[in-house]
């Protein structure tokens, strides 16, 4: 496969997944902002969400105050924010358009129709009146895109590069969500079994943001605790959005597209998967959850750069 074609497929998938992840983060913040809390705690939640995406400085450059509506607008449709939902879905469509001959008609139509519907929804008052409904729509379109891809495309290199983009982006996002929430609490807070009503609703909203609430109940059949949430979202290979599940997919799809220069990239991916596969949550908490996640984020970023180097159009210097 031509590297430029692989590049478009990879980034089509990454941008689609990024739009969904942004919608998930915004939705959990909208839900938790409705809980009884101080203005300071509410503002901290929105600021932490900007921190997840490394957009705090960009937001501060445009806004004097931290208001929920302004953060939502910035993360959804600000034309100067390259990570906004509008920007991501636009880039996903443009990358799909560049390789229409590689995609099935159904996959292209999903990308194109998502972009067209987005214009209509943002032209209405939906985002202001019911932001959660808009975020659900974004998530649904992403699910639809993945389902149509798996259900209609030949299982060749094109699909493997799409899957690589999806799961590299998902691993990065899951790690960021965990790190922002757990950082500052330390291992002691994470191990604590005591939980206020506010914390219970917060952790429940966090699990729902990664479609993990029902899964948690099925796996643990007990009260929600931060340590078990960390275990579920890091070390459970059967949890679709966990770090281990993402790395399983990355390793498998890298093996399908390997070339003469990708051995080191495959080894790095294998080491990341093994580190998760053979860890337990107590050891991770003892070593420091924040430190573990920071190291993982640096490694996943390096892995993405190596995939670009070995398979895709080289990044501009």
Report on the structure:
By secondary structure, the chain is an all-alpha fold. About 2% of the residues have low confidence. The radius of gyration is 19 Å and the shape is globular. The chain has 17 helices and no strands. The longest helix is centred in the N-terminal third of the chain and has 31 residues.
Summed up:
The protein contains 17 helices and no strands. It has helices at about 5-35, 40-50, 55-60, 70-75, 85-100, 105-125, 125-130, 130-150, 155-180, 185-190, 195-210, 215-220, 225-235, 245-255, 265-275, 280-285, 290-310. The longest helix is centred in the N-terminal third of the chain and has 31 residues, at about 5-35.
Describe the structure using short key phrases.
317 residues; mainly alpha; 17 helices
- Fraction of residues in helix: over 70%
Which range does the strand content fall in?
A: under 5%
Largest sheet: none
| Tertiary shape | globular
Poorly predicted spans: 184-189
Helix count from the secondary structure assignment: 17
Q: Rg, please?
A: 19 Å
């Amino acid at each position: 496969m031509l590297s430029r074609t692989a590049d478009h497929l990879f980034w089509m998938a990454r941008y689609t997944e990024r739009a969904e992840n942004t919608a998930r983060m915004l939705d959990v913040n909208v839900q938790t902002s409705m809980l009884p809390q101080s203005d300071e705690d509410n503002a901290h939640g929105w600021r932490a969400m900007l921190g997840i995406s490394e957009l705090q400085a960009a937001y501060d450059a445009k806004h004097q105050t931290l208001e929920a509506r302004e953060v939502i607008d910035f993360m959804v449709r600000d034309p100067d924010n390259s990570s906004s939902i509008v920007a991501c879905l636009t880039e996903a469509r443009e990358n799909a358009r560049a390789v229409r001959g590689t995609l099935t008609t159904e996959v292209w139509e999903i990308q194109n129709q998502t972009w067209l519907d987005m214009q209509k929804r943002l032209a209405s008052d939906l985002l202001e009146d019911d932001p959660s409904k808009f975020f659900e729509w974004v998530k649904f379109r992403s699910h639809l895109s993945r389902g149509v891809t798996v259900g209609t495309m030949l299982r060749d290199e094109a699909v493997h590069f799409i899957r690589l983009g999806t799961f590299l982006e998902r691993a990065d996002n899951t790690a960021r969500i965990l790190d922002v929430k757990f950082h500052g609490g330390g291992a002691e807070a994470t191990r604590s079994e005591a939980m206020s009503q506010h914390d219970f609703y917060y952790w429940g909203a966090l699990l729902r943001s990664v479609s993990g609430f029902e899964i948690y109940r099925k796996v643990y059949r007990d009260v929600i605790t931060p340590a078990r949430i960390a275990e579920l979202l890091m070390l459970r290979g059967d949890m679709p959005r966990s770090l281990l599940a993402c790395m399983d997919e990355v390793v498998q799809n890298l093996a399908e597209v390997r070339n003469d220069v990708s051995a080191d990239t495959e080894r790095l991916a294998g080491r990341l998967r093994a580190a998760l596969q053979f860890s337990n949550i107590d050891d991770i908490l003892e070593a420091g959850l924040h430190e573990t996640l920071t190291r993982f984020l640096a490694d996943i970023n390096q892995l993405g750069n190596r995939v670009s180097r070995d398979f895709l159009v080289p990044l501009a210097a």
